[in-house]
Structure prediction request, 228 residues.
Amino acid sequence: MKILIIRTGILLISIFLILIIFLSTIGIKTNKLNNQIQNQLEKVNKDFRIELKDVSIILDPLKFKLNLKTIGTNLKYRNREIQLEKIESNISLKSILSNEFSLKKLIISTKPIKVKNLISLFRILNNDPKLLIAEQFIKSGYLIADINIEFNDEGKIKDNFYINGYVKNGNVNLLRKAKLSKMNFNFNFNKNEFAINDFSFLLNDKNFFIPQLRSQYLNDKFVISGKA
Prediction:
């Protein structure tokens, strides 16, 4: 009887360990969380719609949380659509066990998208008049971006978001006599700073290159600096 109990205990422990290894390496796919993710986005803005495929779930047993990942997702806002490469997030097991589903962080990677469409999304995150002006002046161009956002307890986006990416073949009409075209650069954007690196462009058909350009919000003023 004692041997049977020991063997049963060993078997149960082995099954548990195999299950933990499987969930923390291969994981599972499910669409059970799609509605909850959509509801979370609606807390940010009721006009957000997301087309989700199955969500991959990987267990992180050391941090007691689930890592979520979905590939090939489309994010829609009114009449605009942003094609996403992937979305990653995590949920604490404690919130699952207490039936309090809540996303605390999202990491969004886009496919090549129109610059104007992403600026529209920036304006949702930070309704800055300068973004509205930029949206009016930018004529064309594509970019790839990684967007990192966190949510507070009410499901609203915190102001510590940051976005980085790459712009290709951007075109801007500043004034009637000034035209920027074929702009290519890397960028980082957060609440207080917009940084551009390796900025190459044509100004009225003349080639220019700026290694670094920054716009920072300091003491209620925007300060622009750079390296030529």
